[in-house]
């Protein structure tokens, strides 16, 4: 429980602010304080350039892994197999945000990555290799991959009942509490025979991989699909280093209380068996500390030192805002393929153009964004025929009924607005329903306004990609509930996710903003994103892991 003025035993002392030396540069970073955020505002301008940061990352990883073996664990892996027309297996780079975020490690470090067999090709590869880790055949990847071939029924219960929608909706505040969720016997069964089962398979694979060498295992676990892995691994490997990073928001304890005590307690108990638990934003750190305070009997929560003392262990709770690979994003946005898409998109532009790029799912708040645009067109007839909205929407979890209904609502909103305001030569909203990243990059090159009004997001990388690739000094309108807002508030126009009127006013302000103010804001955001790119995100975590032994 929160210690308040309690005098703690010496072993439960707060974790103080301390400096950690980067072995490649001799420079030091700061850990602790500000709810676990690694860099203070004063230090941000002195951060390393992306090129130096990559060199630093490799040097730091080499030093950290000199006497440790890295085992990374996530639902999706860095590669996946598909079955070619001739029946042979062909490997390609894995998809998903976690894979993209961790690609920097696969290029610099030798380690093992444990992931679910997602496709029939993955399952065939897992059977052929008898469950062992094998080197990735993809050029540039130095990683060995071990696929977990979970029985389909168990994986369905794990992923399609517990992970999505139950945990995803809880962590994005998407349940309508008078009506949903309905935690019935099917959910209890899915927890025991799906979520717990799959997490146990992953934990057993970690233990098996750790036994292949005498080096101490360094286990890095990613995201909400595998919350129980840290606790299960700790039971069998008490001296392992364990790091968990949660990519999605962490809600307040009162919202977690929608779920049965056995679920929320098991999750918090397991996470507190890690040495470090990382989150995207300070609010997530605060909420997690509050959850441990509420749900874990005997826990001592130190909010000043941002740590939890529980069952004889101290778990550091830290903030690591994820980012993008600036160079890779620019390479894609500047590619000949992106140029072709820009040529196709240019005839669709208005005198000014609003753009959004999102998965087509409820947490992205697409319907309210269109309603704000509709309000603006009602209020400003002079904008009709002159301001167009291009929406690049990626189909997502189309098997989940809540997602299907939301896409229907999006379609209804688009039809209503286009019917109300459209003319023979002007359609207000042009939507692209497809998973086409390069086309979306081309679209973001062209925006005058980028609308990101998510209900809540762990980070929202579109908000970081947009300012990097845009060529018009476009204005970013950003939800205050997106993790990216903490870093980009210096240049973005804020909007509350439920505030349709506020979003309409922000659109009006953005479209009317003088060029010099647009440029000032765009430059501030670009500078911030370039300083704090994906390599820096990885390096911060490795620095804190290295500091555990210093």
Overview of this protein structure:
- This protein has two domains: 236 residues, Glycogen Phosphorylase B (Rossmann fold); 206 residues, Glycogen Phosphorylase B (Rossmann fold, 3-Layer(aba) Sandwich), CATH 3.40.50.
- 43% of the residues lie in helices and 18% in strands.
- The protein has 20 helices and 20 strands.
- α16 links the parallel β18 and β19.
- The longest helix has 26 residues.
- The two termini are 28 Å apart.
Supply Rg: 24 Å
CATH architecture of the largest domain: 3-Layer(aba) Sandwich
Q: Bin the helical content.
A: 40-55%
- What is the average per-residue confidence, as pLDDT, rounded to a whole number? 90
Number of helices: 20
CATH superfamily of the largest domain: Glycogen Phosphorylase B
* C-alpha end-to-end distance: 28 Å
Number of separate domains:
2
- Overall number of strands: 20
> Which structural class matches the secondary elements?
alpha/beta
Shape: globular
The order of strands across the largest sheet is 7-8-6-3-9-10-11-14-13-12
CATH topology descriptor of the largest domain: Rossmann fold
CATH class of the largest domain: Alpha Beta
- Could you list the spans in which at least 5 consecutive residues all have pLDDT below 50? 1-49
Q: What kind of sheet is the major sheet? A: 10 strands, mixed
Strand content: 15-25%
